[in-house]
Amino acid sequence: MAGKHPAWGWRKARWHLLEQPAWDGVALNKKRVRRLWRAEGLTCKPKARKKRRTGPGAGEEKRLRAEYPMHVVSFDFQSDVTSCGRHIRFFNVIDEFTRTALAIIPRRSFTATDVIAALENIIAETGIVPTYVRSDNGPEFTAAALIDWCATAGVDTAFIDPGSPYQTAEEKPGGEAEGKRNNQPALEDTMAEAKYLADEWKEIYNHERPHGSLDGMTPSRHWERWTAENQLAIA
After folding, report:
1. Are the C-beta atoms of 74 and 55 separated by less than 8 Å?
2. Whole-prediction pTM value?
3. Is 14 exposed, middle or buried (0-12, 13-18, 19+ CB in 10 A)?
4. How far apart are CA 155 and CA 144, in angstroms?
5. What is the CATH number of domain 72-234?
6. Which residues contact residue 168 at a Cβ distance below 8 angstroms, ignoring those fewer than 6 apart?
7. Beta-carbon count within 10 A of 181 CB
8. Is the pLDDT of residue 55 over 50?
């Protein structure tokens, strides 16, 4: 598992095993997993502690928190360089409640129109219009076309304050993928290859990779469980 998912630690490996049907009902002690992980020469990083925010408004809970799927949808960009030296950008969209990667789209450049098209595709695929969209104050997100679309679609905006990265989603779906790309030669020679890799990572992120904030569940399972437990409320 460490060879297949080099960016994972022993915690994610344990969560992933517990999700497999073959391990159903098997006690998998976390101390034993950590001991075996270390015995194989793999790194056992201590659990990172969140830093306390300081400064004005540090003790105030102003951030809008997602309460159900598609309540708050966040989006942002991540950049990379192809093996030929050309710039490439990944547009990441995530559902904050379930941590589901709704889209990971590679392109050379993006406009507000491209962002709108991506959001409309997500609505068409999920059948749900988000209540809020959260982003930074970049030009693609503050463009008049996007503001007009939000008003027309009945979607409220939740732009983060300048210099406040903690107000965005706690984890971006492209973060670990970007870490993998930075640790190996660039592979995206063409946009077709970049799209293939992005789609592959989206599938792994949503259906295989356990998430710490979801008690070790994958985003897809968390969404399915919430839907099953809230059928009457949805109806």
Report:
1. no
2. 0.72
3. buried
4. 14
5. 3.30.420.10
6. 74, 76, 134, 135, 136, 160
7. 19
8. no
What pLDDT, in 10s, does the model give residues 17-44? 777 777 777 777 888 888 888 888 887 7
Contact (CB, 8 A) for 110 and 77 = yes
Helix (H) or strand (E) holding 156: strand 156-157
> What residue ranges of the chain are covered by domains with CATH 3.30.420.10?
72-234
All residues at 6 or more sequence positions from 32 whose CB lies less than 8 Å from its CB, including other chains = none
Q: What tokens appear for 135 in the block?
A: 């982003």
Alpha helices in the chain (DSSP H): 10-18, 30-39, 112-126, 139-142, 144-153, 175-182, 191-207, 219-229, 231-234
pLDDT at 185 over 60: no
Distance, CA of 114 to CA of 91 (rounded, Å):
10
